[in-house]
């Protein structure tokens, strides 16, 4: 059974802290504060040995995690919100053909110059009209849906372009505030994934490691600033 914050009545400090952050976030929304800008991790050199605990390490490890869970890591793999393109390089090294998509030209320009693997497309993940239904062998999307105005629509697009039998690997940061977008509490993230990706395998990540979801693991990382829910899901073949 997956952990629920409401089940952990003794963790009063955590819940009060998160309630206060949510209250401030809601106030900004009521005030109409909204930004729309490129947000990406400018990792420009994969030869650097980033130390565990760094944000760069966590970002790279997510792609390596994805490759480990995509059978043979071959075929056309959508890298949604590809940013500076390092994920394309990791996918290509494993034998896949990466298709990097990002909303902004700035990170795409960097990606084409630094990591010229596969292809790069400027597009909104909520409207992937360039791609035909069931045309991609796998989809990876990290730190994406919290930034879009309609996370459910974005995921629906991912599922539309994914072939039956194809793998989806995604992540959501917990209690990280972005505008525009959605602030996912722990329970909101769990509920969202369960609704959009039934029976997905769930994992927890901090900036040092990735481990299967458990209440013990959640209690160990819940007070950290950086924590993520990851999931792996296979689209049922018809």
What is the fold's blueprint, element by element?
Layout (H helix, E strand, L loop, with lengths): L11 H19 L24 H15 L6 E5 L5 H8 L3 E6 L2 H10 L4 E4 L13 E6 L9 H11 E12 L12 H11 L4 E5 L4 E3 L2 H7 L6 E7 L4
Name the CATH superfamily assignment: Vaccinia Virus protein VP39
Low-confidence stretches: none
Mean pLDDT: 87
Order of helices and strands: HHEHEHEEHEHEEHE
Structural class: alpha/beta
How many separate domains make up the residues? 1
Per CATH, which architecture? 3-Layer(aba) Sandwich
CATH class: Alpha Beta
DSSP strand content = 15-25%
- Helix share of residues? 25-40%
**Total number of helical segments?**
7
| Major sheet details | 8 strands, mixed
Rounded to an integer in angstroms, the radius of gyration calculated over CA atoms is 17 Å
Shape type:
globular
Strand order of the largest sheet: 3-2-1-4-5-8-6-7
**Annotation, overall tally of beta strands:** 8
Q: What is the terminal-to-terminal distance?
A: 29 Å
CATH fold-level label: Rossmann fold
């Amino acid at each position: 059974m997956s952990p629920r914050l409401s089940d952990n009545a003794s963790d009063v400090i955590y819940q009060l802290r998160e309630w206060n952050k949510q209250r401030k976030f809601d106030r900004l929304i009521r005030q109409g504060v909204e930004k729309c800008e490129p947000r990406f991790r400018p990792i420009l050199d994969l030869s650097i040995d980033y130390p565990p605990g760094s944000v760069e390490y966590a970002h790279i490890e997510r792609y390596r995690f994805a490759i480990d869970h995509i059978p043979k890591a071959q075929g056309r793999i959508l890298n949604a919100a590809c940013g500076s393109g390092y994920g394309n390089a990791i996918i290509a090294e494993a034998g896949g053909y990466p298709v990097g998509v990002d909303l902004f030209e700035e990170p795409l320009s960097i990606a084409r110059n630094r990591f010229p693997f596969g292809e790069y497309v400027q597009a909104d993940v909520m409207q992937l009209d360039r791609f035909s239904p069931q045309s991609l062998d796998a989809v990876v999307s990290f730190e994406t849906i919290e930034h879009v105005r309609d996370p459910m629509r974005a995921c629906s697009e991912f599922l539309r372009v994914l072939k039956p039998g194809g793998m989806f690997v995604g992540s959501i940061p917990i209690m990280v505030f972005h505008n525009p977008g959605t602030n996912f509490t722990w329970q909101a993230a769990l509920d969202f994934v369960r609704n959009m990706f039934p029976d997905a395998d769930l994992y927890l990540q901090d900036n040092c490691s990735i481990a299967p979801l458990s209440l013990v693991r959640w209690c160990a990382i819940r007070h950290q600033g950086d924590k993520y829910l990851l999931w792996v899901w296979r689209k049922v073949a018809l």
